[in-house]
Amino acid sequence: MQKEVINLLQNKMELIQLNDSNNLCLVGPVRLPVQLDDKVITFQWYTWLPVEKNQTKKDLLEMLPALKLADYQQSSVLVYGDFKEADDALIRMHSICHTGDIFGSKRCDCGFQLREAMKMIVENGSGALFYIANHEGRGIGLFSKSLAYLLQQEGLDTVEANNALDFPDDLRSYEEPIKVLQFLREKQVKLITNNPKKLEALQALGVTAKENVPIWGDISEYNENYLKTKVQKSGHIPVNEKIVII
What we know:
This protein is an alpha/beta fold and 246 residues long.
């Protein structure tokens, strides 16, 4: 890689301490125009990668082709407005959902939540949407999620299906996105989620989040049982009569 390219890119990279052994290399911001309904909204896009503590930004750039990063997903965050200084900012910790976010599957409400959270952040004037790559199927991965879906077709609910594959209900970790959040903003935030347990978990890890903002919608015959299970077994707040516990 040419010296001029390395010098330019190093200025767009930050090393953030993750733990005693690793850092996160945060890259950005990249201007990213996004189509939301009939408007084009420009976000600031960052992505990050765990690296060994002794690796420099120059080391990472020089070894980039050998890393084969296309073999696995990286997480990223869309930032809108004056996220660092705004008094009132919304955040969404969105778990990747290949079927819902990309294909528009109706078996869950993930795709709806992704787009709706982006709109809520824009309407609020500032915020950030974290897109977390290793959260597929609440942390079991895409291949395992397809097996869980087959079990759900046989009558198991989403929690039972994960358990039947010898996984806990939820394997997700928020350590990396929290480190990025704390780098981008020190002030309090509001968390877009239906799950107060997620808010409590993030607060326990050091996030200064003061409340959660619900995001229900796109309820249909295809995902009604899935949503009821999230209320009954995962502690989500029921805000629609269709998903009230009976």
